[in-house]
Amino acid sequence: MQPTLDPATLKNLIFDLGDVIIPIDLTAPIRNFAMLANMPEDDVRDLWQQHDFLNHYETGLIDDDAFRNHVRQLISQYSDAPKGWADEVIDTAWNTVLLDLPVERIERIKQLRTRYRLFLLSNTSPIHIRQVNQVLTGMGQPALEELFETVFYSYDLRMAKPSPGIYQHVLTQAGIRAEETAFFDDNALNIRAAAELGIQAVQVQPPLTMLDYVKDLS
């Protein structure tokens, strides 16, 4: 059951990025790497699951170059496709997870920041953040770091949702109280972990979007 948000008690809003602000397709990178490697999608998906370097990348344990090299080495072991993909080829395939960004969501965030302190908390990678910011600025919109008071990225913090520590870090770093804070995320585990700390955690679930969940906030 979703909590009922009371604007009178709220001072702070924390947003997830993927499937809250920007729609994503988690299967798209697998499809694209499979096409590039001339391999079945299921085989690429199995390799990704067996070699869990993505978690290392999103928690800052490896950098962009190490991530790209992991992709090259992994595919080269199991594919007869041309080796040595350029950085741009890997980045482009990796960024296909990001779908079109609805400008109305950005405009709503800009409205909300006149009334609330706004923060971003995302399990993500530097390649994705650079791409989102490129899309935003190409639309004439502020970059994420300008749109929010503070952005919290898993790769910077070296921890990820749903670890309780990441939520506590945000509360402490921002100097905000859990009970005065709403958190919007699409993942049920992330929502549960935030709620256990007293945050008003709201799961964004299709067919509803972020806009539906914040429509009653002035």
CATH topology of the largest domain: Rossmann fold
Whole-number average pLDDT?
94
What order do the strands of the largest sheet run in, or round the barrel if closed?
3-2-1-4-5
Strand content: 5-15%
**Counted beta strands:** 5
Order of helices and strands: EHHHHHHEHHEHHEHEH
Global Rg: 18 Å
How far apart the termini lie comes to: 23 Å
Note down, in words, how this protein is organized.
- With 218 residues, the chain is an alpha/beta fold.
- It has 2 domains: 12-23 and 100-213, Rossmann fold (3-Layer(aba) Sandwich), CATH 3.40.50.1000; 28-97, Orthogonal Bundle (DNA polymerase, domain 1).
- Helix content is 47%, strand content 11%.
- The protein contains 12 helices and 5 strands.
- It has helices at residues 28-37, 41-50, 53-58, 64-78, 87-94, 103-112, 126-138, 144-147, 154-157, 164-174, 188-195, 210-213; strands spanning 12-15, 117-122, 150-153, 181-185, 200-203.
- A 5-stranded parallel beta sheet has the order 3-2-1-4-5.
- Helix 11 (188-195) links the parallel strand 4 (181-185) and strand 5.
- Helix 1 packs across helix 2 (41-50).
- The longest helix is centred in the N-terminal third of the chain and has 15 residues, at 64-78.
- InterPro entries: HAD-like_sf, HAD-SF_hydro_IA, HAD_sf, PGP-like_dom2.
